[in-house]
Amino acid sequence: MTLNLRQKQTECIARMLNLNQPLNASGTTNEEAYKILIYDKFCQNILSPLIHVKDLRKHGVTLYFLIDKDRKPVHDVPAVYFVQPIQSNVQRIIADASRSLYQTFHLNFSTSIPRPLLEDLASGTLGSDSIQRISKVHDQYLEFVTLEDNLFSLAQKSCFLQLNDPSAGDREIEDIIEKIVSGLFCVLATLGVVPVIRCPRGGPAEMVATALDQRIRDHLLSKNNLFTEGGNFVSSFQRPVLCIFDRNFELPVAIQHDFRYRPLVHDVLGLKLNRLSVQGEKGGMRSYELDSADTFWVTNGGLEFPEVAGEIETQLNKYKSDVDEVNKRTGGNHGAEFDGTDLIGNTKYLMNAVNSLPELTERKQVIDKHTNIATVLLGEIKERSLDSYAKKENDMMVRGGIERSELLGVLRGKGTKMDKLRFAIMYLISSETINPTEVEAVETALRESEVDTAAFQYVKKIKSLNVSLASANSASRSNIVDWAEKLYGQSISAVTAGVKNLLSSDRQLALARTVEALIEGRPNPETDVYLAFDPRAPKSGSGASSSLLKGPFKEAIVFMIGGGNYVEYCSLQELAQNQQPPKHIIYGTTELLTGVDFVEQLTLLGKKMGLGNVGSTSAQ
Amino acid sequence: MQFKSTQSSFRDRTHEFHTVAERLKKSLSSSSSSSGPNGPSSSNSPYPSSSSPSSSSRSEDPRSAVAIQSEFNRRASKIGFGIHQTSQKLSKLAKLAKRTSVFDDPTMEIQELTSVIKQDITALNSAVVDLQLISNSRNESGNVSTDTTSHSTTVVDDLKTRLMSTTKEFKDVLTMRTENLKVHENRRQLFSANASKDSANPFIRQRPLATKSAASASNAPAPPWASGKQVDGESQPLLQQQQQQQQMVPLQDSYMQSRAEALQNVESTIHELSNIFNQLATLVSQQGEVAIRIDENMDDTLANVEGAQGALLKYLNSISSN
Which residues of A352-368 are buried (b: 16+ CB within 10 A; e: fewer)? Predict the structure, then answer.
């Protein structure tokens, strides 16, 4: 049974809209009741990628509002609230109830409402004598945003910044870890699985893993818990493995320029909650939706951009030929005699043509949409010469260095300030040793282009303190070299020089490599030192690493703390497909960040460390 | 704490909520009663103005508005239930129409069911029209909020769409039925081509034609022919004659058949054409139901509201500066 997160979350929401009664087979409401849906901003982000207004109507929801909006009374109609359990929402609910806006209130909180807030709600509604209107209170455990079948995000902003903030106190770090654990718990509750947890030692990953393990244990102790499916002794084959990583495990992925379609659209055009706004061909902004219903997006999201353009071309030609065929069959027969059979055949063709019209129109719309997106992308790429950035960054990672002249040439060439900053940081990460003079030159070049170098300084500092960046990098390089040597048996330098053409998109991320090792369960020096938690095992046995915990898994949930992006998602999906037999990997993160967003967080960190523009006129 | 014992990913806190409320009620009633009225004011609602006028407007809110609202709701739920039942009957009809074999044709049942469904749909149609009149009159009376207006409009629209989809399904089932009949006829023609097979064939063949009004005319003359010919009989020459007659009967029958078939073809063609035009019409009308997302209109309205707010502020400034 493969876990489809999006489907499960949609089912939960549908059930919630049906006033938490089980749905009948056709998926529509049992009772003929019309209701009103009210949500807050966070829950709106949860709902919008999953349900359209059409589906809301199917479930009997007539109106939908934000909780903060000024709403008028609609008597005699039940209202379904889907909000976060926070104080302002509770106050608003009390106000609504006291005004008797709706007949009955069905309250659904996105995660468990804490006891004090529940008491506030009770006292507030008692006071205004409207408690009889509150008919139900539920904890929904849905506090996460699912963007695709296997992609979710906790929508928690600036996690990396807060976790790595030098001035952060213990209390704040604990709060953040608590929030992450709560989000992960919601994901697991919705999927209905208790996974085996693996994580590297140290850092936020270990903290989250321990806290999550504890939370699941406590929960399983209660009589009727949320994970009743699957017995207590189900083998580890059926359970997925939850791999938790921290962003610092592999920094370059979040920063580099990638040239595949999905990451490009996300990075360059700003894809948010599967929605995209681009300049239309005839002027004016067009808004598009890119989700699992868009077959072109799903199949071609992982391709490099030039291939995508070719695919659009192919689809367009196929569409044109189909339209021509339809025209040929139906048109041009106006002068037919009223012979019985001929008329029948004619109408049959006509009917088929009319039936295929909606499908053809939809195909055309999809093709137009992607043509528009590709055109805008192409403009951006040309203007910022993003292809050369992507290629050179890839070269740097593979080769471990770059010619100084080339480096400075790029820094003085085309591209936005952010592009140059990202390139400089990639250089810093990819080079084995830091050559002080080169770094100086780079900094001068950056300053010439008026780029704020705080992020650069931060990474420099981290690199000098931290060895893990380099190890992850060199491991990826050596892996490629081993592979290349095995296949070609040639000298290393020749291979690495020429290998970039073959591996332009196949350089395996450290993350993918580690996840593969964890899934396969073969002894691997890197992953053997990882911690393992099994919330189902009795406490005493959890100390010894039982073989159950390391065995091969069919499914994995990979979670990245501090921010992830589509590059990792695409790589993990490729990994899952390439396994024999194909496995299933769900990827989640605290928030989906573009390269620009992430570098901004690095800049803020650099500024907090007091590493602003050294030598600039503004004093710290 | 009460937990749901089913395999669900949510938890019901209602019982807990009620226990908390009970406890608080007891503690409130045991303490001085003056704490009661303090409740609403201390609840920190950021909308203090809403509580006082709402209480007064609640009392003056005529019962009729609430009564009309519930009347509307009752009717809407009745119509919805009616549509649900009709679609169930429709699925039964579809099953019947699909499973008809060559010899066992539940024509009567299908006829009955078809007429029943037709009546249902017409009744529901008029009920929906009535509902819309009610909601329009109520909206114009001005006693209700804008949200209620949009709610009732949406409900009426939703019912209309569902009724339309049910009607479309009905038409589809009828089309399928006609196609099935044609298939059966073709098969029967294959059977009737070897005339020695079944002498009872001509009679049975006539049956599907009975459902079509166009073919009913051909039904009447055929049996007298056939029955008339088969009454007289001697042995050998009779056999020959019978064979001849049987060949003649098929000939006559085939002539009738072909005429009936031609009529049927024309009828089905017209039927399909009407289908096509209906589909075109629904295609056009359904453009309004484009897949819009929940957060889509918000940005527009936000911009508009901000623009409006700015304009109002400017106006205020210009006035107050006088």
Answer: ebbeeeeeeeebbebbb
Q: Which residue has the tokens 């807050």?
A: A40
Cβ pair A340:B266 closer than 8 A: yes
Closest CA to B37 of A420, A98, A180, A209: A98
CA-to-CA distance for A77 and A63, rounded, in angstroms?
11
Tens-place pLDDT, residues B277-303: 676 666 555 544 555 677 665 555 566
Mean pLDDT of B210-231: 38
Report pLDDT for A24. 57
- Chain B interface, best mutation among A5, A23, A68, A75, by max B CB count within 10 A: A75
Closest-approach residue (CA) in chain A for B148: A74
Domain containing B112 equals: 65-194+256-287
* Sign of CA pseudo-dihedral A127, A133, A135, A136: negative
Round to whole Å and give the CA distance between A15 and A127.
Answer: 31
| Residue A260 DSSP class | B
Counting the structural domains of chain B, the total is 1
CA distance to partner chain B, nearest, from residue A63 (Å): 6
Count of domains forming chain A: 4
Helix (H) / strand (E) containing A199: strand A196-199
Asked whether residue A500 is domain-assigned, the answer is: no
- The answer to whether residues A379 and A414 belong to one domain is no
Using CA atoms in the order A186, A187, A192, A193, what is the torsion angle rounded to 10 degrees?
-120
Burial of A564 by CB count in 10 Å (0-12 exposed, 13-18 middle, 19+ buried)?
A: buried
ipTM: 0.71
Judge whether B144 lies within some domain: yes
Residue B315: inside a domain, yes or no? no
Residues A355 and A227 reside in one and the same domain: no
A316 in a structural domain: yes
Distances (CA, A) of A332 to A321, A336, B34, B111, B276: 17, 9, 87, 39, 18
8 Å CB contact between A430 and A473: yes
Looking up residue A20, the CATH number of its domain turns out to be 3.40.50.2060
Contact B291 A52 (CB under 8 A): yes
Tokens representing residue A37 in the block: 């849906």
- Domain with A101, as residue range(s), is 5-143
Are A122 and A43 found together in one domain? yes
Q: Are residues A527 and A471 in the same domain?
A: no
Q: Phi, psi (5° rounding) for residue A134?
A: -80, 105
In the predicted model, what is the mean pLDDT of chain A? 80
Q: pLDDT category, A480, cuts 50, 70, 90?
A: very low
- pLDDT of amino acid B184: 77
Mean pLDDT, range A511-530, rounded to an integer:
82
CB contact under 8 A, B272 and A98: no
Question: A196 has which bridge partners?
Answer: A241
Share of chain A above pLDDT 70, in %: 82
State whether A32 and B77 contact (CB < 8 Å). Answer: yes
Neighboring chain B residues of A190 at a CB cutoff of 8 Å:
9
Query: Which stretch of DSSP H or E encloses residue A198?
Result: strand A196-199
Q: Among B7, B36, B295, whose Cβ lies nearest the Cβ of A228? A: B7
- Please name the amino acid found at residue A325: E
Residues A222 and A125 in one domain: no
- Residue range B123-134: mean pLDDT, rounded: 86
How close does chain B come to A514, measured CA to CA in Å?
31
State the CATH number of the domain containing residue B131. 1.20.58
pLDDT tens digits, one per residue of A156-213: 988 898 888 888 888 999 999 999 999 999 999 888 888 889 998 888 899 999 999 9
Q: Determine the average pLDDT of the residues in A501-515.
A: 65
The confidence score (pLDDT) of residue A179 equals 92
Distance CA A8, CA A14 (A): 10
On the question of pLDDT at A472 being above 90, the answer is no
